[in-house]
Amino acid sequence: MDWDDIRVMIEVGRANSFTGAAVSLGVSKATVSRRIATLEAMAGVRLFQRLPGGSALTPQGEEIISRALRIEDDILDLERALRSMRSRPNRMVAVRMSEGVASYLITPVMAGQALGPLGKAAMLHGVDLPPIKIVGFDPSINSDIDIIWQSGGKLPPGRPNDRVRKLADVHFVPFLSDDYMRLEKLPSKFDDLYRHKLVTLDAYTHFRGDGWENWHNLLSEGDMPAISTAWSCSVGHLTLRGAGIGVLPTYSPLYADGLRVTEITSPSMIASLWMVCGQDTAKDPLVKRCMDGLWRIFSSADWMHP
């Protein structure tokens, strides 16, 4: 089957006229008639009624043209993708993420370092991501893919047709440092933390469910005011330097040997990482390659869950 025959059929269906289709395509009416005759011979039925003032689709023609239009959409989408790759040979995939995800998870992958859960997974499984541009949560900056924290078993916000995929469930526990262990009496249970200096991340206030409510209560009712910061790296540094007990992801010791998990039983504190991409953007071959690569890395990582 010749795609040009299908194009002719689509144009005749749109123009309701062999003559109109010929003008639109820049060919003769005889060429249009010949190509339609070829399709009708293949189908064994009339696809168009010939009328004094033009033409009209038969029921069989309606069925065939609906399929032809879907094929046309796919071909046009492919052409757009190919033109996009040609016109933007050095294009980078813009991925929106938090500072912590960028610093501790994605940057080692981009640098080719076997550091942290994702860096090790990428090296072990040979995952090669396309060039990535990390963008923050400034709404004025467009992104192709968003990596979003969400808690409480909820789906991330977005549009109904977005492509959404959970990347990982990340567990959080209280950490302290060797310096803090030498200076302070250690807690024997989770509720004892209210007597200690606590270090937290501003973004944790959005986490709900599981043990997060317990943590929020400790911060508000503790004997000492908590240290709260907007940067996850600051939580790690403050905890490592003995400023207090901080809640961090369980994989944090991969970046700092001096961090110690408290020997108390903590309520479950979990937050999920989700990957979100717009329906049309996800059709871009480069974006799709990035999404598939991120999924492979995240799904094969050792998150050091308790």
UniProtKB/TrEMBL annotation:
Q: Which Pfam families match?
A: HTH_1, LysR_substrate
Give GO terms for biological process.
DNA-templated transcription
Sorted keywords for this record are: DNA-binding, Transcription, Transcription regulation
Output the Gene Ontology terms for molecular function. DNA-binding transcription factor activity; sequence-specific DNA binding
Query: Does the record carry Transmembrane helix as a key word?
Result: no
Which InterPro entries does the record match to this protein? Answer: LysR-type_TF_proteobact-type, LysR_HTH_N, LysR_subst-bd, WH-like_DNA-bd_sf, WH_DNA-bd_sf
Q: Which residues form a coiled coil?
A: none
Q: Report if keyword Transcription is assigned.
A: yes
Start and end residues of each HTH lysR-type domain: 1-58
UniProt similarity note: Belongs to the LysR transcriptional regulatory family.
Q: Could you tell me what this protein is called?
A: HTH lysR-type domain-containing protein
Q: Which organism is it from?
A: Magnetospirillum fulvum MGU-K5
